[in-house]
Amino acid sequence: MKIALDIHNNSFWLMANKCLYWKEQSTLVVSDVHLGKASHFQKAGLPIPSLIGHEDLNAIAKVIFDIRPKTVIFLGDLFHSNYNEEWNWFKTWMDHFPETQFKLVIGNHDQAILPMLPENLDAIEEWFEPPFLFTHEPVEEMKKDLFYVSGHLHPGVVIKGKGRQYAKLPCFWKKKNQLIMPAFGNLTGAMKMPTKGAEIYAIFENEIVKI
């Protein structure tokens, strides 16, 4: 399921799998996978199964096979911490997509793995395709003629039900010239974002809805 937005005469799909697709550029954008976080928790004594990393990669692979984008942009924090076995999985995973161009917009968690990137994954500070600027962290001083796409914050929204029931859901958070993507990784959580003046596209299981 997806919601299509027209931004500067370009078509962007906000997808229920927490990915963003730019149709004109045949580009899939995935933010904050945090691969290796399960192993990081294990070292701290928490019984988190490493297979969660496999599940995240399998989910991304399914989107690539379904859409067949020319380019995949990891919008920062692809990896979570120091090198571990999950990074080897990722390098093997990359071999399944020889025709796809991959780029990593460097996030604050990615520094440890930069010397070990596969040859077909280019590390960049930002990705600029006027009038769109893709960065990991939101830009503080934005120009009126540009549209900014970022991650990093793991945006979420609280949905209240009857009584004291509530749920915090990941979401796409949009303002006039800014879009903040939800975190893709299973172990990333979500941070409640301000709703005033913003468009909120909440994600629940296989659905996405504007609230």
End-to-end CA span: 16 Å
What's the helix count? 3
Class per helix and strand makeup: alpha/beta
Q: What is the ordering of alpha helices and beta strands?
A: EEEEHHEHEEEEEEEEEEE
- The gross shape turns out to be globular
Strand fraction band? 25-35%
**Helix share of residues?**
10-25%
Mean pLDDT: 87
Number of domains: 1
CATH architecture: 4-Layer Sandwich
Pick out the low-confidence regions. 37-51
CATH topology: Purple Acid Phosphatase, chain A, domain 2
What is the tally of beta strands?
16
Largest sheet, strands/sense/barrel: 9 strands, mixed
- Over all CA atoms, what is the radius of gyration? 17 Å
Write structural notes for this entry.
- The protein has 211 residues and is of the alpha/beta class.
- It has a single domain, classed as Purple Acid Phosphatase, chain A, domain 2, CATH 3.60.21.
- It is built from 3 helices and 16 strands.
- The strands form 2 sheets. Strands 8, 9, 10, 11, 12, 13, 14, 15 and 16 form a 9-stranded mixed beta sheet that branches. Strands 1-2-3-4-5-6-7 form a 7-stranded mixed beta sheet, with no helix packed on it.
- A hairpin with a 2-residue loop joins strand 15 and strand 16.
- The longest helix is centred in the N-terminal third of the chain and has 17 residues.
- It starts with a strand and ends with a strand.
